[in-house]
Design goal:
By secondary structure, the chain is α/β, with parallel strands linked by helices. 30% of the residues lie in helices and 23% in strands. Bound molecules: 5'-O-[hydroxy(phenylacetyl)phosphoryl]adenosine.
């Protein structure tokens, strides 16, 4: 930490713009963004209904007069109905697979790609990346924005890339060791799995050349950070983004690691009560809503992310002026309700990491066999704690039960399973299986 704190490099001077200058930039860009969005029939109609046009935008707060956009709006405009430029201006297409059928596509112009790599460079440099480093990218390369997004950001910084992509974890460990990568890029759950496989191959924490990790693409907890740092002997940074807004690079942590600075010169962020759609006070959890200010191919106005987090506008020791968003505590559509109580997978993760002997590999299965909801948490035991001793296993189960109860307020059935019994994901981990939603009980 001390090494980084004395080496606070800032990639783009725009990251430290004084707030009043930033406001002026936002005001100008918002008006342009609305003008560009009006080229999309969906937005032309929505703006007409809302009775607002680009000329009416005076400051960033006027964003509140704009219509919202949801994932369903993108689905209804499948495949490229939200395009604001001629097809010939498309430089690349990405997409998110979603869990329900058709993907949603997002398009980029050449300038969008330049903006994007610059934004990824910002958080990488904020989290220690230097041009002399070699970065191992274990994100999937394809429609998912993680692989290519990080790849071009790393190249922009001038660092070297190993485009390992997902899969074959023992080979990933071998590549990291033999090529000497100092930086690892993937989802946090996959980072943990890489650590686990490295351990099984006989590497202790710190035996690999890795020094930093930049993780994102899925929610994770502070406890998980501690675990990853211990397993891999690195310093781990969080970065956030979503394809509809641009991909990774919407926000990322600096060395202070107390929230992710939003690139506010490119995206306006609001934190709203998901029911009333009114702003929540800073520090309170709400749904993040983003408006793109500079995107050309597919601008979004007030995109409802369903991601729940809070905002912090207090000054940051790093000197960046962009508002900081907290970790995503959950997605409103990831939240599950068990017997009337709202629960997020992150709460289960936090509970498990409090219990020695429990590994942070878990799956939550919910069903309603009769009239009452039943939640089963399947948890892996850590290899060193796996035992034939019944008494020991029952005690472990009871400790997990106690922590989950104290965090969520409800009782779930805890099932201990052997180390590595649950599948591992190379991308985003699937934590919740809700049989009620599928209509199967
Ligand atoms: O996951 C973009 C990305 C790739 C971000 C790699 C960071 C690193 P999508 O596939 O569209 O895009 O999924 C976006 O993933 O709405 C969040 O729910 C979740 N998410 C992304 N980063 C984080 C994070 C990419 N750091 C969805 N913490 C978002 C929590 C995250 N959730």
């Amino acid at each position: 930490m001390t090494k980084l704190a004395t080496d606070n490099r800032i990639w783009d001077p725009a990251e430290t713009l004084p707030r009043d200058e930033l406001r002026a930039v936002q005001a100008r860009r918002l008006s342009d963004a609305v003008r560009r969005a009006a080229a999309v029939p969906f937005y032309a109609e929505a703006l007409r209904k809302a009775g607002v046009s680009a000329d009416a935008i005076r400051g960033p707060e006027d964003v509140r007069r704009l219509p919202f956009t949801t994932k369903d709006d993108l689905r209804r405009n499948y495949p490229l109905g939200m395009l604001a430029v001629p097809r010939s201006a498309i430089a690349r297409v990405h997409g998110s697979s979603g869990t329900t059928g058709k993907p949603t596509f997002v398009a980029y112009t050449k300038r969008d790609l330049e903006t994007w790599s610059g934004l990824v460079a910002r958080f990488l440099v904020a989290g220690g990346l230097r041009s002399e480093h070699l970065v191992h990218v274990a994100f999937g390369y394809g429609l998912f924005t993680g692989g290519f997004g990080l790849h071009y950001g790393i190249e922009r910084v001038g660092a070297g890339v190993v485009p390992a992509a997902g899969g074959n974890t023992p080979r990933q460990v071998l590549l990291i060791r033999d090529l000497g990568a100092e930086v690892l890029v993937c989802t946090p759950s996959y980072a943990l799995h890489i650590g686990e496989v490295a351990r099984a191959e006989g590497f202790g924490p710190g035996d690999l050349p890795l020094r930093f990790g930049h993780f994102g693409g899925e929610p994770w907890t502070e406890e998980m950070r501690v675990e990853i740092e211990r397993e891999l002997g690195i310093q781990a940074f969080n970065n956030y983004g979503l394809s509809e807004v641009i991909g990774p690079g919407v926000s990322g942590e600096c060395f202070a690691r107390s929230g992710m600075h939003v690139a506010e010169d490119h995206f306006l962020v609001e934190c709203l009560d998901p029911w009333t759609l009114e702003p929540v006070p800073d520090g309170d959890v709400g749904e993040l809503v983003f408006t793109s200010l500079t995107k050309e191919a597919m601008p979004v106005l007030r995109y409802r992310t369903r991601d729940l987090a809070s905002l912090d506008r207090s000054p940051c020791p790093c000197g960046r002026t962009g508002v900081r968003m907290s970790r995503v505590v959950g997605r409103s559509d990831d939240m599950f309700i068990v017997r009337g109580v709202n629960v997020f997978p992150s709460q289960i993760e936090e509970a498990l990491l409090r219990v020695e002997g429990a590994a942070p590999h878990y799956v939550i299965e919910i069903a309603r066999p009769g009239t009452l909801d039943e939640a089963v948490v399947r948890v892996e035991i850590r290899p060193g704690d796996f035992s034939d001793e019944m008494r020991q296993m029952v005690a472990l189960r009871d400790r997990i039960d106690h922590e989950i109860h104290s965090i969520t307020g409800i009782r779930m059935t805890i099932e201990l399973v052997a180390p590595s019994a649950l599948g591992r994901s190379e991308g985003k981990a699937r934590r919740v299986i809700d049989h009620r939603r599928a209509g199967i009980t």
